[in-house]
Amino acid sequence: MEGAGRANDVQAELDSVDSELELIELQIAELLQKQAELTSRKNALLQQLEEACDAAPSSSSHSATAAPVMNKQEMQRYDGTDFPWYKELERHLKDTFHLSKFRPLQLRAMNLSMSSKDLFLVMPTGRGKSLCYQLPAVCSKGFTLVITPLVSLMEDQIMYLNSVNVPGVMLNASSSKEHSKTVMAGLTDVKAPFKLVYVTPEKIAKSKLLMSRLEKAYNANLLSRIAVDEVHCCSQWGHDFRPDYKLLGILKRQFPRVPLLGLTATATSSVLKDCEKILCVSKPVTLTASFNRTNLYYEVRIKDSNNNASISDIASLIDSRYKNQSGIVYVFSQKDAEFVASELQKRDILAYPYHATMDPVDKSRVHHKWASNKVKVVVATVAFGMGIDKPDVRFVIHHTISKSIENYYQESGRAGRDGHPADCIVYFGFSDIFRVSTMVVMENVGQQKLLKMVDYCQNVDRCRRSLMAVHFDEVWDDEGCNQMCDTCRHSEDHTSMDITQHAREVVQLLELAASMNEKLTPLKLVDAWMGRGPAKHRRLIQTTALSRLQAEAVIVQLLLQGYLREDFSFTPYTTHFYMKLGAKSPLLKNQNHKVSMKRRASVSDSVAVGSGQTKAKGGKRSVHRAGAGPVSKKVKEDLL
Ligand SMILES: Nc1ncnc2c1ncn2[C@H]1C[C@H](O)[C@@H](COP(=O)(O)OP(=O)(O)OP(=O)(O)O)O1
């Protein structure tokens, strides 16, 4: 009797906790709604502020704190060609650097820097930041001092400058005495034997001799400009803090008349504020290029457990939409690089593998053949990245998802550097989530970042650009996308599906497994739910009628929404992943609680759920047999 009374009490308390949790859910939903409204209001206000500033006269009496350093009209003046140095800039752009025109913001940055303004330039990787100090260096008296964190970056730059006959030298911890002596002497030589002098921040911090030579050069007006590459390294809030960068404030204190140019591909406004203080520059002009690559088309395709089907799909794309065009297929592992390349070869596609453990000679041979268009496709791990600067890459296909959206942006961003349209397609497979998890398990926020990538892939109703933009502190809305992603092209093509009952079944299954002291890997969970597990389970649980892809999509959704979570255990050889109940799973006990997911309406259940699947432009789907025959004679000859 007493036991029954106690059970009633517990049940009553549980009900009350349930309703409180439900209330919190509602409040969270309301807060999220409010956040969206406020963000949109904030953007509208920022727009109004910008317009008001534009309308104000340039010599306005705004207080220094309220007004931006320069208004839009003033800024646009620096895009002009009527500066005394313009002809020289243009001549060297063509004759020395062999480039036909400036890229967006380059001329503005150069004009500002040549006008002796201090400048922070935030531009995505590969957009041409270096030219913004290299070209002014060539057109100015004396030399430009460049602070770079890595010796390898310096070496690349010097190699490039030598190839275009621009004298550049570097000084770092491993420079020989003789070399250092020559460089030090050159710094005060009025004939300016070097136009660019690259040094590490440690050199500035530790070499008194260097500082005294720079002082002499400054007094002789030979130090024309200071460029601080990877300027975000100054700030502890940046992602790559370098203690020696903290000491670079000495440059502006010692050489106040020399314009400073800080360059970075990644810095929020608070990081830049911090850099401003550390470098002792007062109110620099900040130029920020949008990270939105408008010429890239983003698409997600669902990969089922049959790996060969996705390879056939990739082969079909390369054979039709990308016929004779250059591209990269990114894979997860070295083994995958070999496997996928050989499967593509079997399908008559000349594709070379590339990964970190290959012989360096083979690596550079593959790189060279690809760069010179003798081979169109490289199947590579992310080791194929640094220094890849081919302009005409028309497609980057990810055979496996990247470990974060930031990584995906970088990797896929190797497409379309020439500004012409190019495609970025990622194949999203359920089991890949857990393969990539093993790679990021030790990283600080690795799992969270991976789940954001999964969310990007699972999404069917939001512009893919807008999902990426959040990671760069930017707003790229659906209009800015211009139908250059699959969700914008199919904007009406999704419905909401109630998955509450499915969620309850999955939770019941995991509870049953836990009661039997069994751990379920994600794949076993799907198997068991589909009635493919051990017979003892099948008797006890409600199996699902969903297709495998649907079942996987529901489980991914439950993982993203926090009804499930990943758990892992380590052996000396591998990491095992298991599915566990997540923080929100108790909410399912409440009969009024609802869980839903969005899905593509037009995609047949047997093909994909939550997929961005679209047909290749040529209209063709996979035409090759899975596991097709041996490598063709033609490909064999080309491989030799
Ligand atoms: N105006 C231009 N026209 C054509 N190509 C250009 C132009 N300016 C630069 N480039 C090329 C030169 C390089 O091959 C490539 C990338 O330039 P680079 O200066 O290395 O980029 P970046 O400095 O922004 O990248 P990172 O962040 O990797 O240092 O772009």
Automatic annotation (TrEMBL):
InterPro entries attached to this UniProt entry: DEAD/DEAH_box_helicase_dom, DNA_helicase_ATP-dep_RecQ, Helicase_ATP-bd, Helicase_C-like, P-loop_NTPase, RecQ_Zn-bd, RQC_domain, WH-like_DNA-bd_sf
Gene3D superfamilies in UniProt: P-loop containing nucleotide triphosphate hydrolases, Winged helix-like DNA-binding domain superfamily/Winged helix DNA-binding domain
Cofactor(s) essential for the protein: Mn(2+); Mg(2+); Zn(2+)
BP GO annotations: DNA replication; double-strand break repair via homologous recombination
Record localization: Nucleus
Reactions listed under catalytic activity: dATP + H2O = dADP + phosphate + H(+); Couples ATP hydrolysis with the unwinding of duplex DNA by translocating in the 3'-5' direction; ATP + H2O = ADP + phosphate + H(+)
NCBIfam families found in the cross-reference section: recQ_fam (TIGR00614)
The protein's name in its UniProt record: ATP-dependent DNA helicase
Organism: Betta splendens (Siamese fighting fish)
Designated gene of the protein: recql
